[in-house]
Amino acid sequence: MIETKGEKMKEFWKKIPLWQKIVGALILGLMTGIIFGESAQALKPIGTLFINLIKMLIVPLVFVTLVTGIIAMEDLKKMQRVGFKTFIVYLATTAIAITIGLVVGIVLEPGVGVSLEAASTMTVKEAPTLIDTLLNIITKNPFSSFANGNVLQIIFFAIILGISINLSGEKGEPAKKFFTSMSEAMYKMTEIVMAFAPFGVFALMAWVSSSYGADVLLSLGKVIFGVYLAAIIHILITMAGGISFIGKLNPIKFFKGIITAQTVAFTSTSSSGTLPITTQNTTENLGVSKPIASFVLPLGATINLDGTALYQGVCAMFVAQAFGVQLGMEEYLVIILTSTLASIGTAGVPGAGLIMLTLVLTSVGLPIEGVAIIAGIDRILDMARTTVNVTGDAMTSVLIAKSENELDEDIYNGHKLHEDVELQKSI
After folding, report:
1. Cβ contact 227:384 at 8 Å
2. Which pLDDT score is estimated for 49?
3. Where are the domains of the chain?
């Protein structure tokens, strides 16, 4: 039987790795936006559809996989140990990120020569205190939390439910089987949604590149350059260094394994939205066990905001320099501490980046009017910081899995496919 031209194209499309499709779509979308200008904004609904599909996955995926992860850790001591390690790594990398952001801001001086006197005031949601956030973690109504997409409350409920199922012993076995089966179904649903990713990424990039003209980019070019430079430094030094020196693993293999998640994070600007892809990449490409990935990654998508932290550093220096405010070592330390804690305190809040920035500026007495002009390029900055956030989550999952002997290094190094492992388990 002779293959038709359409069938040949279909087979060719299937053979292209997903990350290559997404990178190609990103470049093509960028060019489309530049060439066609405002006309390219008509493609935005396609990108919105893709984002909505991903958002559809977030709540059930976080809940089901986290419960499954807790169930798999029948040893409560192990769960405590993994949780402690995860929290320490997240806090440490966040503190390093904000420090890098401050140093880049000091060296580049992005605010010098930029006048913020004409910046209009804007209303920014008040940042919740850390105490309020911690108290709000305990949900009064789990169903309301699911409906509103309150990730912190969902995570807390999932942890309590998972522990309760383990404590139920034999009577909890049906629940264990249910959540294990549901988690596999959610992974399969993720694969279905990701088949649409190249088209969604193309549309999103066409919209972004057509929405932001050269004028805005040039006027705040130093800020944009500073955030992206800090992001690259953090990824190449902190994360690659962590993989190399702590994990004793090849960092190139790591970045190759998560390139799809990084690309989706860059275009979607949502750590939570990228969670399904991050989970898939870390388990199938890097060999992280599903229990570890299911526990570490949902937490990271909520409280590990390395990219957002370094963004605070660059933007705080920009505002200080633009308004002629001199900062000393004391102010730098306050910014580092505030940003580190705020990464948890503003978790799950829409527009967390701007909210955190307002909180950081207030903590050292800088004018919050500076947030108004930063907001104009926030989408572009968000692309960099989300990529860093997701990369940090993946790095942490690999390090924790390695420390718990739950990292399949054959998969990590590309010597064995994830499908082979699943087949062996089924035999």
Report:
1. yes
2. 87
3. 16-426
Number of CB atoms found within 10 A of residue 73's CB: 22
Token pair listed for 47: 């990108």
Kindly report, residue by residue over 146-197, the tens digit of the pLDDT: 888 776 678 788 888 988 988 888 888 899 899 888 878 887 887 788 788 7
> HEC profile for the chain?
CCCCHHHHHHHHHHHCCHHHHHHHHHHHHHHHHHHHHHHHHHHHHHHHHHHHHHHHHHHHHHHHHHHHHHHHCCCHHHHHHHHHHHHHHHHHHHHHHHHHHHHHHHHHCCCCCCCCCCCCCCCCCCCCCHHHHHHHCCCCCHHHHHHHCCHHHHHHHHHHHHHHHHHCHHHHHHHHHHHHHHHHHHHHHHHHHHCCHHHHHHHHHHHHHHHCCHHHHHHCHHHHHHHHHHHHHHHHHHHHHHHHHHCCCCHHHHHHHCHHHHHHHHHHCCHHHHHHHHHHHHHHCCCECHHHHHHHHHHHHHHCCHHHHHHHHHHHHHHHHHCCCCCCHHHHHHHHHHHHHHHHHCCCCCCHHHHHHHHHHHHCCCCCCHHHHHHHCHHHHHHHHHHHHHHHHHHHHHHHHHHCCCECHHHHCCCCCHHHHHHHHHC
d(CA 8, CA 52): 31
Q: Mean pLDDT in the chain?
A: 79
Joined together, the tokens standing for residue 102 give 């401050």
| Token digits of residue 365 | 């007495």
Q: What are phi and psi of 288, to 5 degrees?
A: -70, 135
With beta carbons less than 8 A apart as the criterion, state whether 286 and 411 touch.
yes
Give how far Cα 103 sits from Cα of 95, 238, 263, 331, 332, Å. Answer: 13, 15, 27, 13, 10
Cβ atoms within 10 Å, residue 125: 13
Angstrom distance (rounded) from CA 236 to CA 252: 10
List beta partners, residue 407: 288
Neighbouring C-beta atoms of residue 74, cutoff 10 Å? 13
d(CA 411, CA 253): 10
- Angstrom distances, CA of residue 308 to CA of 18, 91, 299: 27, 13, 16
CA distance 258 to 240: 13
CATH class of 16-426: mainly alpha
